[in-house]
Amino acid sequence: MTTDTTALRRSLADEIHAANPTLAPQWHAALASVPREVFTGTAVYRQSGSHWEPLHRAALGEEQWLRLVHTDRTLVTQIDGLDAVAATGPVTGHPTSSATLPSLVVRTLQAAGLRGQEKVWEVGTGTGYSTAILCHRLGEHRVVSVEYDSGLAARAAAHLKEAGYEPTLITGDGLQQHPQADNCDAVVATCAVRYIPRSWMWQLADHGSITTTLSGWMLASGLIRLTLDDTGAAHGRFTADEISYMLARPHERPPSPPFLRQHGDTRRARLDPALLEHWAGRFVAQLAAPSAELMHTAQGPVLRDVATGSQAWTTQDSHGWHVHQHGPLRLWDSVEEALQTWQEAGAPPLTAFGMTVSDTAEEQVVWLRDPEGPRWHLPV
């Protein structure tokens, strides 16, 4: 018996709308119309412990495969550059491409405030699914999409054509300038960035907007919509969404050697490291130490600065937590100071934070409560 994918798409759209009643009907209609199965290919990865196992459409069976595809979940399609269809067995590594869960796609697009007449530059074509959602809502002639990975770009183009959409597609670095995207009304990124690329500012029309997730090497992220003002600077506030996208490849953390503790200065920690488990708390810590990565050990959390090799590691005894700091940067001092500032403000959620980007994009600041309040500069 052939599975009715139309019914599955409608069911998925209804499920997402029920969970998010504020979803605009145009995005509901796009979810119900775009055939997600076209964009997932014939294999995805399924996590099994520390490994990723390829799951093939033929082995799973058509009906079960289509039901899997039409669930509100992220389907990982590539691990460290290896496509699931090419994997012959379990692999280790990190996801480098996925079919993002549909609810996250439309939450991001709704946050962009699109009304239906804008020219949109999408950064991160990926499988092409989010591009198809945009085409359904805006019309393919208003959509320009760029993908860094040439293999993904070629497959996305084929998927989009099969689904009946032919937007303008670019293979290249989405953090650089592309003439096809000049004078766009909105940039929408389906990848995360550590700071706003200058090219995004330069290619916007007057009063255009940028919607992206701001993230870093502690993998704490916030969704924000920035709008250009009359001077060419951009401003905006973060939404309440606790969401994450993969970092844009040029912004990814460079490879690092195994962690080895280095003895240094030791003192009692003034704050509980458990604050780093709080979404907004980790976001604040990332602002204070933008080139540091966060790791977890059996003894406690560890901060290691990718640029300088500085480290801060924690231990606990019957008297509380201690922090050990080594290297030119006192990572825990910086993080602790920022977390204290956040706590003194009432430990608010991400909606209390905003961001300002100068007209040249050379100065980028995240602030708490208002632009004149506590502020942190991004690593432009």
UniProtKB/TrEMBL annotation:
Keywords: Cytoplasm, Methyltransferase, S-adenosyl-L-methionine, Transferase
Gene Ontology CC entries for this record: cytoplasm
An annotated GO BP: methylation
Top EC class of this enzyme: transferase
Keyword tRNA processing tagged: no
Tree of life domain: Bacteria
GO molecular function terms attached to this record: protein-L-isoaspartate (D-aspartate) O-methyltransferase activity
EC number of this enzyme: 2.1.1.77
Primary location class: cytoplasm
Subcellular location: Cytoplasm
PANTHER family referenced in this protein's UniProt entry, alphabetically: PROTEIN-L-ISOASPARTATE O-METHYLTRANSFERASE (PTHR11579), PROTEIN-L-ISOASPARTATE(D-ASPARTATE) O-METHYLTRANSFERASE (PTHR11579:SF0)
Family: Belongs to the methyltransferase superfamily. L-isoaspartyl/D-aspartyl protein methyltransferase family.
Name the UniProt record assigns to this protein: Protein-L-isoaspartate O-methyltransferase
